[in-house]
Structure formats: C-alpha cells, structure tokens
Design goal:
Elements: H1 3-12, H2 17-33, H3 39-67, H4 80-83, H5 88-114, H6 119-138, H7 152-173, H8 178-201, H9 203-208, H10 214-218, H11 220-242, H12 244-249, H13 258-269, H14 277-300
Helix pairs in contact: 2-3, 2-7, 2-8, 2-14, 3-5, 3-6, 3-7, 5-6, 6-7, 7-8, 8-11, 8-14, 11-13, 13-14
C-alpha cells in the first residue's frame, strides 16, 4: 500500500463511515420486514451513502483547514491538510472527483430502484442527491458555510435521519410509513448527538475562531442539556419505531436502548471538553450497532 493511498484513506476518515450507513441499514431493515427488499438496491444505497460521507470528510478537511479552525488548539485528531500531508489543491480535486462518483452512484441507484416508470420521483431523488453533495461541501467550505452558523445540527438530522432512513425505505418499498418516520427521527437525533459531542469538545477553539456551532451559541451547560434531550428523545422514537406490540411479545428487544442509557451515564461524568472526544466514536458505533440490531429484529420477528 503506497503512502499516498494511506494519506487519502486518512482524509476519508474511515471511522466516520459506520454512522453514515446507519440510516441506510435502518431503512432497509424496515423494508426487509415487509418483504420488500432487494439486495442490489441495498448494496448500491450503502456505497452511495459512503461516497457522500467521503465528500463531506474531504470538504471538512479542506474547509476547516483553510479557515484555520484545524489548529494546535483543536482537541480532535489532526487532519491531513493541518499536518501538511495533502495540499488544499489536492483536497479540492478530491472533492470534485468524489462528487462526480457519488452522483454517478446516485443515478445508478435511482435507476435500479425506480426504473423508467416513476420519472417525477426519480427527478426528486436526483435533486436530493445534488442537495446531499451541496450539504456535504457547504458544511465548512465557503464564506457562508452553514456549519459556522449553527445550522449543522439541522442538516445532519435531515440527511442522516429522514433522508437516509425514509429514502432508503422508499427506494425498496415505494411507500412511506410511520415506522420509517419514527426510526428516521431516532437515527437522525443520534447522529446530531455525535456532532454535538464534537462541538462540545471543540467549543473553546470554535468560539475563539468565531465558528458559531450550536454548542458555542448555547454555551457548555446548555449544550450538555441539549445532548441529553437528543439522546432521550431518540430513545423514545426508537421505541415507537420498534412498536409496542413487538416489545410486548419480545420484551428483551428493549435492550436496544441500553447503549443510549449507558451513553447518558458517560456524558454525565464529563467535566472537561476533551473528555467528550472518546464518546464520539462510541456513540457513532452505538448508532451503527442499533441499526444492525434493528435489521436482526425485523428479520427474525417480521
């Protein structure tokens, strides 16, 4: 493996990819329960979601790097531009290439899932793909990057939650139901929780550099209470998505809530911003694990 390839793998931040597919897995879990599941659509959905996440990771590396947000005072892991492993020009080229690949994958996914018969819906999903590329880039890139104006949480909720879960379910089933809405809300709130942990960790550096995340706008204490809200409400919607009838028949399915409860316990113990750093990975992996458990639950108890 060449050193250059290793550098690009570092820029792609593979550790973020499980969270990016949690919504896709969840949406397909619901479809599997209703016997409306295609393996081809599932695989294409996963690959497309990963491509969008890599665009976002390249763009974050580039945007935060050229703005100086990634500096010695930032508590998170150093990124490639910050370390001088990639130039801004190289990252920009990587964003362009990955965006083109992501759009090709999105077009292939929509064509395989919807064919030629649902032209209006196909155009809608194509526009969603364009919006996803825009959102991935504009989070940190440009003078009006929305991640610097407190809007990151909203976009993460929409794309990691509703678009990911409901979109994946629709491409399989051609319908939308309350289960997809409930679980899309749950996964979206957990994903926002990951972002909020990141923002609470970097709150001092972001504040100094006028990166106005919600954590900066609310302050440390309110940001922590906001985090409790995100996780508790995500648990409520997770329960609603599983359904009381299934829980009544199989009470042990409530164990799916345990990672969220344990996470709240961990967050409560944190006193300094740097303490939030290891919790990012654990919450992201918990969200991914929950999506896998949902797939198992809906497969066995459909």
């Amino acid at each position: 493996m060449s050193s250059q390839f290793t550098v690009w793998l570092a820029a792609a931040r593979l550790r973020t990819l499980p969270l990016s597919v949690a919504g896709i897995i969840t949406g397909n879990a619901i479809a599997f329960e209703g016997d409306r599941f295609s393996l081809d659509i599932f695989i294409l959905s996963l690959i497309t979601a990963i491509a969008f996440q890599i665009i976002s990771n390249f763009a974050n590396d580039y945007g935060d790097g050229i703005k100086g947000t990634d500096n010695k005072d930032r508590l998170g892991p150093e990124r490639t531009l910050q370390q001088g492993l990639l130039t801004a020009k190289a990252l920009k080229k990587g964003i362009y290439i990955t965006s083109i690949l992501a759009m090709i994958l999105a077009i292939a996914l929509v064509y395989v899932a919807l064919g030629k018969d649902q032209l209006v819906v196909s155009i809608f999903f194509f526009l969603l793909a364009i919006a996803a590329v825009w959102a991935a880039i504009k989070y940190t890139v440009g003078l009006r990057a929305y991640g610097y104006s407190g809007l990151g949480d909203l976009f993460v909720f929409l794309f990691f939650g509703w678009v990911s879960v409901i979109g994946a379910y629709y491409l399989q089933s051609k319908t939308i139901d309350s289960t997809a809405l409930f679980l899309g809300t749950a996964i979206g709130l957990m994903s926002v929780g990951v972002l909020n942990l990141n923002n609470m960790r970097d709150i001092d550096n972001d504040k100094n550099l006028k990166k106005h995340t919600l954590a900066v706008l609310m302050g440390s204490q309110k940001a922590k209470r906001y985090h409790y809200f995100l996780i508790i409400v995500s648990g409520v919607f997770l329960y609603l998505g599983i359904g009381s009838s299934l829980v009544m028949k199989h009470p042990f399915s409530l164990l799916i809530l345990f990672p969220l409860l344990f996470h709240l316990y961990q967050v409560n113990k944190i006193k300094e911003p740097k303490g939030f750093d290891p919790l990012l990975k654990s919450l992201a992996l918990s969200t991914f694990s929950i999506s896998l458990v949902l797939f198992i639950i809906f497969s066995i108890f459909k």
